[in-house]
Structure formats: structure tokens, C-alpha cells
Amino acid sequence: MAPPTDQLHLDVEAISGICGSISIACWVVVFSPQIVENFRRGSAEGLSIQFIVVWLLGDVFNILGALFQGVLPTMLILAIYYTIADVVLLAQVFSYRGFTLRDIPTPPPAPKRKPHSPPTERTVLLPDHPLPPSDWTHLSPAVPLVGAEAPPPPPPSTRLQSAVFNLLAVLMVCLAGVLGWWLSRSYSSASPAPPASDGGEVAMSFWGQIFGYLCAALYLGSRLPQLLLNYRRKSTDGVSMLFFVFACLGNATYVLSILAYEADCAGDEGCDLAGAYWRYILVNMSWIVGSAGTLVLDAAIFAQFFLYNDVEGGEDEDEEESKQKG
């Protein structure tokens, strides 16, 4: 039977590995729902472009901080993938909206009205705005009026259907993360064991910490443009909820993978395990703050989802009731 310390070490290592694997799985697919939503609508008006730009800058500093600080390989891999995914989403936004940093385009100026003139025989008999050519075809008895109507759009999915779809997607991503961890663990156990570490302390890099805290500040500030855009539009239409669900799950498991760490004092009799652990946490504090802080701001975005969806749902019901009464 293994000693309790070995069991604890295995448990902590497994928790860190599982959380890190789930985090990678979440960040691999995090942008897919929003990209699909933009493609389906043929528009990216619901997404704040400042949100993506600031997030991209944060990911760039994340890479620099991870390189200088020498953090876990998982953290560096995620930082590189974040940057690539940001560039893809930013390219899509620019392709739909043009190269502009404005969230809501300026409406075109209203056409100048012609000065009022006394009615004549022509203005009385002919309207100012003639009917479009498609409407003139209905004047012919050979063209049926009923067949000219466009087919009705498919009914939108209900909230229950959306919730079930989102839940299944999250469960599939979590299972993929656990499966990835299990496969990597099986491969590592079958491979020759790497040389034992010397149990030395984690060195703190000055530039790594600077870039890390710049990354955290940009991550925290990236949500503010999206919150402001949703508030100005009084709507979250065009924004994928699954996009932020994966972002929250990825950040939560990312933080847990960092916290689930057990200091190793092998070969050092005077090593303080608690002190080594807290020094490790201090080295990674900027990444913890950046990921944990965005969870709070994402909670505000979820509140906007429920608040504005309730308002839009009530307006739709009122419109249906008025049509039925009419």
C-alpha cells in the first residue's frame, strides 16, 4: 500500500493535469461558437471589436510573460493558441464590418428634403416614390400574388433547446479534456521516466512578471467594451453565449491547474513545503488574477444575456398578441 504522501501527490498531480487538459479543450473550441454565429448571420455587429483587440494584446503579453518566466508548458501552449484564435476572429470581424475600430457604425446622413412646391397635375396623379419593379409584376393577371411571398424563416430555438445544446457541448468538451489527460498519462507511464528534478525554487523573472501583469490588466479591461456595447444596444443579439461559457470554464480550470501544485523538496532537508508552494503561487499570481478576474466580469455579461433576453422575449410576445388582436 502506498504511503499517504504518495497518494496525495498523485491526487494533486491528477487534478492539475485534468484541469489543464479541460482548459486546453475549452480554449481550442472557445471561438468556434462565435465564429459560427457570425457566419450564420453574415454579420459581427454584436461583438465589440475593442474587446477582441484588447484580448489579442493581452494574449501577446501572455506569450512574452510565459517565455520570460518559464511557466508550465500548458500555459505557454494556451497563450500561443489564444493569439492565433484571436487573429482568426479579428479577421472575420474586419471582413464583415470593414477595417474600423468603431463598434456601432455612424448612421448615414438623412437625405435633404426638396423644398415644398405647389401641387401640380403630375404630383397629384403620380406618387413621389414609384413602386419597385417587383411590385409592378402583380398588376399582371398571369403572376399569382400568393406565390410571390418569401417562405417564412425557420422558428428560433427555444430557451430549453439552447440550454440543452449548451450543456451537451460543455459535457463533450469536458469529456474530451479528461480523455486527453488519460491518454497523455498512459503515454507518459509507458515512456521512460524523465530525470528527477533537483527540487530547486522557481526563479522569479522581472520581465516575466511585468508582461504577466500587463496581460492580466488587458484581460480584465477587455470585457468592458463588450459590456458597454451590450448596454448601449440593450441586447446581446449576435453574441454567442457558448463563447463565454467556454471562456469561463477554460479560465476556471486554468486557475485550478495552477493552484493544484505540490512543492517538491527532494534532496533538500531544510526546504519548507508551504513556503515553496506560496512562492510558486506568487510567481504565477498575475496569471491567476487575469483568469480569475475575468470570471467576475463574465458573470456580468451572463447577467446581460438573461436581462436583455427577457426584455426581447417580452417584446416579441407583445407583438404576437397585438397581431392576433388585429
Explained architecture:
The protein has 326 residues and is mainly alpha-helical. It has one domain. It is built from eleven helices and no strands. The protein has helices at residues 4-29, 32-41, 49-69, 73-97, 121-125, 133-136, 159-190, 206-233, 241-259, 273-283, 285-325. The termini are far apart. Mean pLDDT is 74; it is low at 1-10, 191-200 and 322-326.
Quickly give the structural class. mainly alpha
Radius of gyration: 28 Å
What count of domains describes the coordinates?
1
What proportion of the residues is helical, as a percent range? 55-70%
- Strand residue content: under 5%
Average pLDDT for all residues? 74
Number of helices: 11
In terms of quaternary structure, the protein is single chain
| Ends apart, CA distance between termini | 79 Å
Shape: globular
Biggest sheet character: none
Beta strand count:
0
Low-confidence stretches: 1-10, 191-200, 322-326
SSE topology string? HHHHHHHHHHH
